[in-house]
Amino acid sequence: MSDNLKAYQDNHIENEDEEIYERSNGKGKELVDFKKKREPLIHNHEVLNTMQSSVKTLLSSLGEDPEREGLLKTPLRMSKALLFFTQGYEQSVDEVIGEAIFNENHHEMVVVRDIDIFSLCEHHMVPFHGKCHIGYIPDQKVLGLSKLARVAEIFARRLQVQERLTRQIAQAIQAHLNPMGVAVVIEASHMCMVMRGVQKPGASTVTSSVCGIFEKDSRTRAEFFSLIKSNK
Predict the structure, then answer these.
(1) Does the structure show a pLDDT above 80 at 178?
(2) What's the CA angle centered on 18, arms 3 and 169, to 5 degrees?
(3) What pLDDT is attached to residue 34?
(4) Which of 87, 106, 124, 215 is catalytic?
(5) Is the four-CA dihedral 150, 154, 155, 159 of positive or negative sign?
(6) What is the separation, in whole angstroms, between the first and last Cα of the chain?
(7) Burial class (CB in 10 A: 0-12, 13-18, 19+), 73
């Protein structure tokens, strides 16, 4: 029996509520929402027209002339860009994972690191970007490696705060794969700290979310952090 499997069996307590909830609303806990939030809108002319009108108003409020040559197509470009930046609302975890869960008698750690992520801070609507590292320990089932990056992309392509993004990725993998545990670390640079506010280029924010054996066993957690830092 592997050390990971033994540690999991020694520490694991069956609990349907464990690590897959985001908040309480007074009526009981709610699952993190892994579903679509909207249908594809990039070709929805009614939505695009509404957004373009709002962008023109914004440009005028900034003291610009929306009718000058350089800005004539800006409302449409900006509207399409925002829909692209938030296309994670058009995807669900179920659709992305599909049938890419495979039976495999493997109980050792799987790590995919240095996944590029780009997101929009929901506070200022400016970008933050960086690297995401995902690790999990299978319990008879493994996930196609590219799907780990795709899950990260779903939640990154929404209005976010880094703390929630990290937690959502971990909880989505835990809920859909039911492994022994999941660990996620994100290292990112926030333009709201670089271009405005304290204006500190070079500052980075690191967040982590762990569940299952990674939360209960310090040796497993330490192994994950060692692997994502090796050869850097």
Answers:
(1) yes
(2) 85
(3) 74
(4) 124
(5) positive
(6) 32
(7) exposed
User: Could you report the per-residue pLDDT of 24-68, keeping only the tens digit for each?
Assistant: 344 434 446 677 888 889 899 999 999 999 999 999 999 999 999
Q: Which amino acid is at 46?
A: E
192 is catalytic: yes
- Number of separate helices (H) and strands (E) present in the chain: 9, 9
107 catalytic? Reply is: no
Decide: helix, strand or coil at residue 61.
Answer: helix
Q: Which of 52, 162, 171, 174 is catalytic?
A: 162
- Tallying the residues shown for the chain, one arrives at 232
Which residue is catalytic, options 9, 95, 108, 123? Answer: 123
Per-residue pLDDT tens digits for 140-167: 999 999 999 999 999 999 999 999 999 9
The pTM assigned to this predicted structure is 0.84
pLDDT the model gives residue 151: 97
- Please tell me the distance from the alpha carbon of residue 166 to that of residue 171, in angstroms, as a whole number: 9
HSE (side-chain half, CA atoms, 13 Å) at 33: 9
Q: Is residue 22 flagged as an active site residue?
A: no
Q: How far apart are CA 223 and CA 232, in angstroms?
A: 16
Q: Which of 12, 64, 192, 215 is catalytic?
A: 192
How many whole angstroms from its chain centre is CA 63?
A: 36
